[in-house]
From TrEMBL:
Protein keywords: Purine biosynthesis, Transferase
Catalytic residues in the record: 109
Binding-site residues for N(1)-(5-phospho-beta-D-ribosyl)glycinamide, renumbered to this chain: 11-13
Top-level class of the enzyme under EC nomenclature: transferase
Gene: purN
E.C. numbers: 2.1.2.2
Record keyword Transferase present: yes
Protein name: Phosphoribosylglycinamide formyltransferase
Binding-site list for (6R)-10-formyltetrahydrofolate: 65, 90-93, 107
GO MF term set: phosphoribosylglycinamide formyltransferase activity
Residue intervals of the Formyl transferase N-terminal domain: 2-182
């Protein structure tokens, strides 16, 4: 399966997916890494791996989110992309793109959904006094972080945790869970 990975920044989950895809039996090939931010650090890393890094800056499109997405979508179709993995892509998608890729687009979110949709998930979990946190892989649907769940991983919240220490613990699990979930889904597709 020809996949595209969408990022907006550091791209550590993208890196985990690309590394996993090096296994000869992995059911996906990453053909392009897309970022809305031309300065995203992950783009350079992708290039260093021989993967096409494509920046489609959202800023020239102003408020027209759909036009930005149509530009990206055209690039994906030109490359024969069949499946999208959102990995720290920080733009809210329009219903147009979601519909185009329904059943063929997944996201990773750093909370145990349905808890803590949106931002600052680790801070919110600590403030709530939760005993555990984690990450979720889900299908992308019209509502932000609301699509059907695919997989979750849990970590404990420890005494003295800050959002940063908790984020690091969760991120380790994200890097394990995302490739495993992609392998699972694409093997069944
Ligand atoms: C991850 O925690 C991901 O779950 C969230 O944003 C972060 C992106 O990190 N959506 P990275 O760019 O993959 O390193």
């Amino acid at each position: 399966t020809r996949i595209a990975i969408f990022i907006s920044g550091r791209g550590s989950n993208m890196m985990a997916l690309v590394e996993a895809a090096k296994a000869p039996d992995f059911p996906a090939e990453c053909v392009v890494v897309v970022s809305n931010d031309p300065a995203a650090a992950g783009l350079e890393w992708a290039t260093s791996q021989g993967i096409e890094a494509l920046a489609v800056d959202h800023r020239p499109f102003g408020k027209d989110r759909e036009a930005h997405e149509r530009a990206i979508d055209t690039e994906l179709r030109a490359r024969g992309v069949e499946f999208i993995c959102l990995a720290g892509y920080m733009r809210i998608l329009t219903p147009w793109l979601v519909t185009q890729w329904e059943g063929r687009m997944i996201n990773i979110h750093p909370s145990l959904l349905p808890k803590y949709k949106g931002l600052h998930t680790h801070e919110r979990a600590i403030d709530a006094g939760d005993a555990e946190a984690g990450c979720s892989i889900h299908w992308v649907s019209a509502g932000v972080d609301e699509g059907a769940l695919i997989a979750q991983a849990r970590v404990p919240i420890l005494e003295g945790d800050t959002p940063d220490t908790l984020a690091a613990r969760v991120l380790t699990e994200e890097h394990r869970l995302y490739p495993a979930a992609v392998r699972d889904i694409l093997t069944k597709m």
